[in-house]
Amino acid sequence: MRARDVLGAMGIAAGAAVGVAAGACALVAPRRSDEGLEERWAEVCRYRYAHRGLHAEGIPENSLAAFAKARELGFGVELDVHLTLDGALVVIHDSNLGRVCGRSGVVEQLTLSELGECRLMGTDEGIPTLDEVLRLFDAAGDAASPAPPVIVELKTADGSASLLAERTMACIDCYDLRFCVESFDPRVLGWLRARRPDVLRGQLARSFLDDRDLSLARRLGATALLGNVTARPDFIACRFRDRGLPAVRLACGRLGAHLVTWTIHSEREMLESEAEGAPVIFEGFIPDPRSTIGGEERPD
After folding, report:
1. pLDDT tens figures, 44-100
2. Residue 284, CB half-sphere, CA atoms under 13 Å: how many?
3. Ramachandran assignment for 239, one of left (phi > 0), alpha (psi -120 to 50 degrees), beta (any other)
4. I want to staple 239 with a disulfide (CB 3.0 to 4.6 A). Which of 135, 206, 219, 233 is the partner?
5. Which helix (H) or strand (E) holds 261?
6. Which of 89, 7, 14, 76 is nearest to 44 (CA)?
């Protein structure tokens, strides 16, 4: 092959590589920086977040007791929201009631009244409504000591993304909260992007490559954050051990999205994450409630 042909082939290859890189950036790019939202993100960074509340023996996850304990100690919380059969909002992680309530049934197929008969982890704690939980973190009338922020995760099922997002925002709007919203479902973030651009939104992420319940296309697409083309998130909430995924590194590096990590199980992991600038969602130990993002403690 002549030198001219070699150089031509190299030029084509380089152009193709640039095109692929540009396409990848366009797909996973976050929302463009907004001054007001950046101020809210600065507030999020000042706290550590108790995963499903500050739960322990006798205090079940996603219970009012767990959220009250976190609030008392000054932690932010992460919580999970589902839509019931009759359109109510309840805070529970699993759709299937077996693990947390020891009975059969699916949250989305039961009414609020039916779910009211359930108890969490063999305790007297019931499944709380979103309204009940948010009341604990309402900052109204407490300007001197505002409540910590809340990370609200929306759990969709059977095409419920729009209705779940709409009703969740209507509930949140009833309170004076510091909060952000996240979901694995980019349709939730797409709804927020179109109808509530004022809300700080995050795409949940992890490696789905070993998830045999999903098709190969969905596993690859979710792992590569292809839903960002719809979601345009402000932050990526990534499983701690998967934060090095190429798509996460691209979105949170060169493209400027913020990073949150979950679920942190030790002080070592917590400090490692915060040293990288990522606030943490923790479980199984009780750290100081103040974040040390960037080496600076949260001001009192």
Report:
1. 999 999 999 999 999 999 999 999 999 999 999 999 999 999 999 999 999 999 999
2. 9
3. beta
4. 206
5. strand 258-264
6. 76
